[in-house]
Amino acid sequence: MYVAVKGGERAIDNAHAWLAEERRGDTSVPELSVAQIRTQMTLAVNRVMAEGSLYDPDLAALAIKQARGDLIEAIFLIRAYRTTLPRFGGSNPIDTEDMACDRRVSATFKDAPGGQVLGPTFDYTHRLLDFKLAADGEVGDAPVVAHNQTATPHIMSFLDRENLIQSEPTGADIPDDLTRTPLELPASRALRLQSLTRGDEGFILGMAYSTQRGYARNHAFVAELRIGAVAVEMDIPELGFAIEIGEITVTECETVNQFQGSKTQPPQFTRGYGLVFGMTERKAISMALVDRALRWKELGEDNLGAPAQDEEFVLYHSDNIQATGFLEHIKLPHYVDFQSELELIRKLRREAQDNISREAAQ
Amino acid sequence: MSDYNFAYLDEQTKRMIRRAILKGLAIPGYQVPFASREMPMPYGWGTGGVQVSAAVLTPDDTFKVIDQGADDTTNAVSIRRFFQKTAGVAVTEATSEASVIQTRHRIPEQDLRADQILVYQVPIPEPLRFLEPSEVETRKMHALEEYGLMHVKLYEDISQHGDIATAYAYPVKVEGRYVMDPSPIPKFDNPKLEMAGIQLFGAGREQRIYAIPPYTQVVSLDFDDYPFQPTKADHACDLCGAEDSYLDELIVDDAGGRMFMCSDTDYCATRRKQGHVGAQGVPYKEDAA
């Protein structure tokens, strides 16, 4: 005698309760505050904001806490929240020349107006575990200098003056919004950039790395990498002019790449572009390389069949929320499908077996 | 949950989805791109179906959710709760009482009526996807009605296995035009795709909606000498004795003993209430199940 299994509801409630307990962990250890995550796990917060497509450090920190530190889960929480927000309109394009740079480096010129500013970088740290941090994380104050009060011109603008860098066509006034229209191919560069900036850091990094290793190599120099705060302005129709509605920190990377040219057209460098929320320089550099690889068609290059050149491949697989959802859904019940496969394979084996015995008998 | 709009999505989003649904109904089997939203459950958990349900539900509806045919599978429970919370609609496990039924992988055994809507959760809406990975190419193939590749695949199955080796998500042709993926339902369910109810298919991650209007011709692809055959386990349900329903196979002991029971839990319970008892079943008692 058999009684059908039931109890999905109770199982779900109990699983949620257990999850909450596991998230809190050992209660003899003080609970982590959202403010601690926001101020001491800033790079994690930045990644969640960038891939969650929502600039809100408090919510990103909350999501990280709720997700037990699983950043993709945190990004998912932010994305799901983001879709419920009303949309008031679009801001004006941010002016990164006016950025208050915390970091600004160029790999192409030893010095340039605005200077080389290392900023708070891991670049020249020796990766030795600092056991002092295990006991006491307090540090002394770092020396302070005031930000440049004047604008920091883009390195590209100097190349532009000599016509050495290809000029970019002006985009549409209001570009398509990846989160409001279905992605259809071929996609505009604006859509590609939107997709790359919210794409999974690991995926974009891997794609970028593959171009460096020869899969559609386009030898990139980092003309400039800058990180800092920029003002966000928005036109208010009732006022008739733009006002500043806030400030965000972004990372911008411009690469200068191998040049194009022909008998009739003097050669020019080309560029790749990366712009990501927060201090996210690995992502911004990766984005610039992949952006450049995806531009092969407009720049008259050959399709080498490299993954990073394949717009459909890159754009359809870069989103970690889509990827993780589809990947993980295979753990959901599939017993109806599997049952149909079981019947089929038993039937095919039966038929094959019959054939074998028939042949043996002959 | 009063912070959210009725059925979670805002009205503008629902309008956008309804437009896609109407277009889908106007071009049966055609995959309509729509601006799928990020839902509070993961892609792969039925976000497409949930968005379609959200767009068609009204406060007067009675909602039923099944996964693998069952109302009590965890994800069916979760989706049903979601709409209880966000839409406050009445819910039911009885197929005949529901006005909207969201399903994953099954069509209910009981025939649907003209006043019922069946919403499918779809993982990969493109029937040609595993023959041609590029969406750009497959859209072209649909536009040109170029389905030769699919027939070659079915033919190759026959030459290798002596049979068409597709047991679920078996491709169909809708109203003589579009080849369509009926979602991963077992091919046993394919004949039921011609029905009185409206069938809507939502693929959230892939941003596609498609539809089959009532009484539309739906033909499972086959060859004259290898006609399509819906199949099920060659048993009767061990709980209710039904011989016409799709069955789940359960492993019930360490020796690998098997039993079979209806995948459609409402169908099985209804039959047991009517007094049918299968080989391993017990007479129906309230709360016994």
Question: What is the topological layout?
Answer:
The complex is a heterodimer of chains A (362) and B (289).
Chain A: H1 8-24, H2 34-40, H3 42-52, H4 57-66, H5 71-82, E1 100-105, H6 132-135, H7 155-161, H8 189-198, H9 201-212, E2 220-236, E3 241-260, E4 268-277, H10 281-294, H11 311-317, H12 320-328, H13 335-361
Chain B: H1 11-26, E1 32-33, H2 47-56, E2 62-67, H3 74-87, E3 90-91, E4 100-104, E5 117-121, H4 135-143, H5 148-161, E6 172-174, E7 178-180, E8 198-203, E9 208-212, E10 218-220, E11 247-251, E12 258-262, H6 265-273
Parallel strand pairs in B: 2-3, 2-4, 4-5, 5-8
Antiparallel strand pairs in B: 1-9, 6-7, 6-10, 8-9, 11-12
Helix pairs in contact in B: 1-2
The neighbouring-strand order within the major sheet of chain A is 1-2-3-4
Q: Order of helices and strands of chain B, N to C?
A: HEHEHEEEHHEEEEEEEH
Global outline of chain B: globular
What is the average of the pLDDT values of chain A?
A: 92
Write out the strand line-up for the largest beta sheet of chain B, numbering strands in chain order: 1-9-8-5-4-2-3
Instruction: Please identify the structural class of chain B as seen in this structure.
Output: alpha/beta
Beta-sheet strand percentage of chain B? 15-25%
Termini gap of chain B? 32 Å
Q: How far from one another are the termini of chain A?
A: 46 Å
> What structural class do the secondary elements of chain A suggest?
alpha+beta
Our count of helices of chain B gives 6
Identify low-pLDDT runs of chain B: none
Extended strand count of chain A: 4
Please tally the helical runs of chain A, counting DSSP H or I stretches of 4 or more residues.
Answer: 13
Pair of chains with the largest interface and how many residues each contributes: A-B, 52 and 66 residues
> Roughly what percent helix of chain A?
40-55%
Tally of extended strands of chain B? 12
Q: Let me know the largest β-sheet of chain A.
A: 4 strands, antiparallel
Number of domains of chain A: 3
Mean pLDDT of chain B: 94
How is the biggest beta sheet of chain B arranged? 7 strands, mixed
